Amino acid sequence: MTVAKVSVPCDFGVENLYDEFHGNIIVEFKDSSVMKASSLILSWNSEVFTHLFKELRQGTVELKDFSKEVAVILLESLYSGDILVEKSHFREIYKISHAFKVKWLSEKCIAAFTGFCESSSQDFNDMVFLFNEAV
Q1: Average pLDDT over residues 24-37
Q2: Tens digit of pLDDT for each residue in 40-68?
Q3: 3-state secondary structure of 7
Q4: Residues 108-115: contacts with CB under 8 Å, at least 24 apart
Q5: 78-101 tens-digit pLDDT
Q6: Burial of 14 (0-12, 13-18, 19+ CB in 10 A)
Q7: What is the C-alpha to C-alpha distance for residues 95 and 133, in angstroms, rounded to an integer?
Q8: Can you give the three-state secondary structure of 13-28, one letter per residue?
């Protein structure tokens, strides 16, 4: 019997992110706090994580270039397979998804940006500035 490959994004259960039993790597945040996460789930979503864990054999990931809030949003989205991109976090979420090559998350950011443009009373140039700042 052949089992079909699960596609990304996939719901691994965000509750598992907060269960230290399932974490085999350490994630370090900008504020020096840490949490455990699963290399399997992170690698499933990102070739960058795959490279870090499989080829470089790293047991720690530093997410210090991003706010802790956005880094946790990234991790939760990798576990849940979904995200609600808020305007206030758009730039950083797009940057972190681009940095770790999480294609589906980058696509969600672009879709959210399109929605911001369609529903915004702001000048189009302001919206282009918002997008360019994220790239």
Answers
A1: 94
A2: 899 999 999 999 999 899 899 999 999 99
A3: coil
A4: 108/83, 109/85, 109/134, 112/85, 112/87
A5: 988 888 888 888 889 999 999 999
A6: middle
A7: 9
A8: CHHHHHCHHHCCEEEE
Does residue 9 have a cis bond before it (omega within 30 degrees)? yes
Residue with tokens 């998350």: 105
pLDDT at 131: 59
Q: Which whole-number Å values give the CA distances from 20 to 9, 24, 28, 31, 48, in the listed order? A: 22, 8, 15, 20, 23
34, 65 Cβ separation under 8 angstroms: no
Instruction: Give the separation between CA 124 and CA 104, rounded to whole angstroms.
Output: 25
Query: 64 in helix, strand or coil?
Result: coil
The residue length of the chain stands at: 135
CB 93 within 8 A of CB 53: no
pTM over 0.85: no
Quick check: helix, strand or coil at residue 65? coil
Tell which phi-psi region holds residue 69, choosing left (phi > 0), alpha (psi between -120 and 50) or beta. alpha
β-pairing, 34-37 vs 60-63, is unpaired
